[in-house]
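Holo prediction. Input below; ligand is zinc ion.
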Amino acid sequence: MGSLALVFCLAAWPAAPAPFAAGPGQETYVSELIVEPIPYDVVFRFDRSLPSGRMKKTKDGSPGTSYRMVQRTMRGGEVLRTRVLWERRIEPVPAVIVVGRPTRPVSRGSYTRMRVLEMEATAYCPNSCCGSGNPKRTAIGMRAGPGVVAVDPQVIPLRTVLFIEGYGLAVAGDTGGAIKGLRVDLGFATHAAALKFGRRKVRVHVLGKA
Ligand SMILES: [Zn+2]
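Structure of the complex:
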């Protein structure tokens, strides 16, 4: 997270009640108040009353703020020491997103969102019509089907938990020759359901265990 540091130079004063112009060998102190925003987390929770693939924001997040008064000891334009005189934190408040029924391979609990990706999704079914080789098992030995999606492991590591808008919770459980870059292949129970989904743009929330 790139932190935007707003730096206010409050005061620069000599070490002791001394001459205004510090001599070349004399130490001076410079104090700065550094104000930095603290980003908030996005927490995902399950709600069985919502259909799979649906999500609802139940609480807005708000960023926190960190205030630090830093004192630098200078001599001849050079920083000799830096110390934090005091520190205050206003903690961020996480946003809460409630998502629909978890699919079978995803364990319950709370998740934190790591990032959001706009991806191009296609659909498959676990039968031989949609795959080559062993159609029922994925690259990491999972049972192919609903909740199991193929990804490019360079983009999303295998076994990562995802929430895909319009689809639901899923595990990155497979790879595929055509699945490169911002592509994802979603598992469905039947070939008809996969055809119905077709190909479309989806928002993918990459989750981590909270
Ligand atoms: Zn199929």
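The chain has two domains: 6-90, 104-209. That is the main takeaway for now.
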